Amino acid sequence: MTAEIIDGRAVAQQVREEVAKGVAELVAAGGTAPGLATVLIGDDPASEVYVRSKRRACVAAGMVDLHRHLPGDVPQHEAAALLDELAADPAVSGILLQLPTPGHLDAEALLTRIPAEKDVDGLTTANAGLLAQGRPGLRPCTPSGVIELLDRHGVPLSGAHAVVIGRSVLVGKPMAQLLLERNATVTICHSRTRDLAAECRRADVLVVAAGIPSLVGADAVKPGATVIDVGIHRGEHGLTGDVQYDAVAEVAGTITPVPGGVGPMTIAMLLANTLTAARVQQSTGRR
Ligand code: ADP
Q1: Over the stretch 176-208, which tens digit does the pLDDT of each residue have?
Q2: Is 11 left (phi over 0), alpha (psi -120 to 50) or beta?
Q3: Ligand 1, from 167, 169, 230, 258: best to mutate by most atoms within 8 Å of Cβ?
């Protein structure tokens, strides 16, 4: 069998066009264009690249780029003060604190300054709590991008057995909760899981977010299963994921490539969250 390949770039483009349309509609209806405040602290080159592409995507969708940059040695209280300023600014619909922050800063404490309704990364304790309780809130971008990929490829989730490898706050845990919200039967695997391959072989939908190159081979995949690879590693042969793509594509029914799978969806969902945040804020008349 050769798996159907999920084209994440195409789906991301579709989502970004829908967001751009939503922005235009909001403005046409007398609203204000959503503003995204990306906050970068320091000069980490990888973070600079990520932030630049988020800012570009934001402008392309018709949103306002409200980027802020702080020096790498900024004291905690000054970084906190900037976040407080953005939190109070009605032109700011969404705030994204680019992680990781420099080592001397307490990132957790900084995240708490972001109000839940502006937390477009879905990373604050408040939004994690809303997700855990199944209540409406802004969801983390990478796992909600995975759900979007599955939905747009017609992968059934209700009653399906979903296995998530990884339990990080950023990906694994919210991924499992989103799948549960969609009525999948969910198993979470992690570094202490006994016989990982046996657990994975039970999956109709396997989402791999362990951060380990080539962790999942064909022996861990049920024939015909859907395999979503969240991993991304830079190696001699370019970018690769947590899944042994060539071997697994022979067994799986549907698979995401790396690059061009989950990756592009993260920014698309960030834009979708920013539009949602702006709509909620403007409809409740808080701006
Ligand atoms: P990410 O941000 O991509 O989710 P992290 O590095 O923060 O990745 O977390 C890695 C996750 O993967 C952890 O939850 C860990 O338990 C899980 N993990 C690490 N190694 C293995 C392994 N060998 N088998 C299964 N899960 C693993």
Answers
A1: 999 999 999 999 999 999 999 999 999 999 999
A2: alpha
A3: 167
